[in-house]
Structures are given as structure tokens and as C-alpha cells.
Amino acid sequence: MSIIDPAIAVQRLPRHVAIVMDGNGRWAEARHRPRSFGHHEGVKAVRASVEACIRRHIPTLTLFAFSSENWKRPEEEVGTLMELFMKAMDREVDELVANGVSLRFIGERAAFAAPIRERMDRCEERAPASTRLQLNIAANYGGRWDIVQAARGVARAVAAGELDAARIDESVFDAYTCLADLPPLDLFIRTGGETRVSNFLLWQLAYAELWFSDVLWPDFDAGTLDAALADYARRERRFGGRGASGGAGA
Ligand code: FPP
To answer: Residues lining ligand 1, CB < 6 A?
Structure first.
């Protein structure tokens, strides 16, 4: 395993990384194997990325496992993915918890079959003694869905008389989004060569740094993560203000 450049100071590391894990299908096709083989190998890359975040003291990792648009895939592939999720949850949860990983699933759960929903609940209930990594799995998730469910929460609070509509601002609204209690998103990574956001974490992306790679997800490892971290550490984040170098910009 590659070790991150010790010259990257802890304060230059992101506190929250999100990844669109793209390229499983192409990785398998390049090997004349079924797409399901790529998804199986993708699980190994999930494990590697979790391990790498723990070692690098990155406290929050959010992975896009299944988008609300992925239901459009052939039934067989959706079935394979569901089975994979269930098996991965059964197999990995003990080790994750033992290693200080807290799990959360974000997305609309109602569409999943009961055995999957039950496993999600059980995984979330398994709190480690002390959390080293908060791992969020986006499943049947869409960034627009998150914004709409937050708007619904805000509307309910107003209707119940708990919230004055005149008080709604960005930080009040933010509190109703899925990851509100966690560090703001710092670094967005997408593998697989596409340079799209694909309806992931739209609200949270406002000032995140974006990093795209041609690496196909099953090939993602600690070295790829380190390349992203090194690039991130070099960037000057200005959040719309003026940076240390005096330059204006976003
Ligand atoms: C995109 O590759 C990947 C997915 C739709 C599924 C991601 C799932 C995993 C990595 C496995 C399990 C995850 C967990 C959290 C246990 P693609 O099929 O779109 O690839 P392509 O762009 O090459 O067709």
C-alpha cells in the first residue's frame, strides 16, 4: 500500500471525501467478463478506499453505490447489485464496526425490498465504541431527492409551528439535508473517465473541490486516493473570497 506524502499536513487533508465509483462494467468488459464480475471486484475497491481513509485519518467518506437512476438498468444487473449489497453488508459489517466504522445509508429506502431495508437498519444500529470513519453509502440516492426531502422537512416544521418561515436561510435548510451533522464535503472524486456530477450531493457540492480520474473503479486503490489528496492539498480554497495570494474568484 502506498503511503501518503508526509509533506501533506493534516490540515491540508479533506475531512469529507465523496466518490462516484464508476467503471465497473467497462473494467469487466475489457476482460471479456460479465458486468457483474466488475461489480464484485468493485467491492474490493470499496474495502481499499475505506481502509485508506482510516489510515489517513479522513473522518468522513460518502460512496455513491446506487443512484435513483440505476433502476433503469436491466433487471438482471439490478438483481446482481442488490445481492451484492446484501452479501457485502452481511460479510463486512462486523469488521467495519471492529475497525471503528459507523455506517449510514442515505437515499429513498422505500424502493428496496424488506431484507435489504432490514440489513440497512441493523448496520446503522451497530455503533462502534469510537468512530474513526463515518461511512455513508448512497443507495437509491439522488441530489435532487435530498433537496426535495429537506424542503419537505422544512415545510412540515413550518406547518407544525416549530419554524418561522421568515427564519429559513441556507444554514436552517442545510440542517434538513442528509449529511447535515457531518463535516462539509471537501473533495468529490469520480472514477471512470466521465466528468459529470450525475445528481450526487448537489447541495453539498457548492464549494467542494472536484477531482476526476480515468481509473476504472475496480482499479482504485490507496495510490489513486493519494493522487487525489495531493492535488487537493495544492489547491487554494477561497469560498468566494480572496485567497492568501490576493486573487479574487470562486
Ligand atoms: C458504476 O459502474 C457502479 C455501480 C452502478 C455500482 C457500484 C457498486 C459497487 C462498487 C459495489 C458495491 C458497493 C458497496 C458499497 C458494497 P458502471 O456499471 O456504471 O460501469 P461502466 O460505466 O463501466 O458501465
So the answer is: 21-26, 39, 42-43, 46, 63, 65, 70, 81, 84-85, 88, 137, 192, 217
Tell me, yes or no, if 70 is annotated catalytic: yes
Say which range, 51-65, 70-84, 142-156, 193-207, has the weakest mean pLDDT.
Answer: 70-84
- Give the number of other Cβ atoms within 10 Å of residue 141's Cβ: 24
Q: How many CB atoms lie within 10 A of CB 57?
A: 11
The confidence score (pLDDT) of residue 143 equals 97
The minimum-distance atom of ligand 1 relative to the CA of 35 is 18
Mean pLDDT estimate for the chain = 92
Q: How does pLDDT run across 128-182, given as a tens digit for each residue?
A: 999 999 999 999 999 999 999 999 999 999 999 999 999 999 999 999 999 999 9
Alpha helices in the chain (DSSP H): 24-29, 35-55, 75-98, 114-125, 143-159, 170-174, 222-234
Q: How far is the CA of 39 from the centre of ligand 1 (A)?
A: 5
Phi, psi of 154, deg, nearest 5? -65, -45
Rounded average pLDDT over 47-64:
97
How distant, in Å, are the alpha carbons of 79, 113, 120, 123 from that of 85?
10, 12, 10, 12
5 carries an active-site annotation: no
Fold of 17-234: Undecaprenyl pyrophosphate synthetase (3.40.1180)
What gap in Å lies between CA 126 and CA 120, rounded to an integer?
10
Distances (CA, A) of 210 to 9, 14, 44, 191, 241: 20, 12, 24, 11, 18
CA of 24 from ligand 1 middle (Å) equals 5
Total-model pTM:
0.92
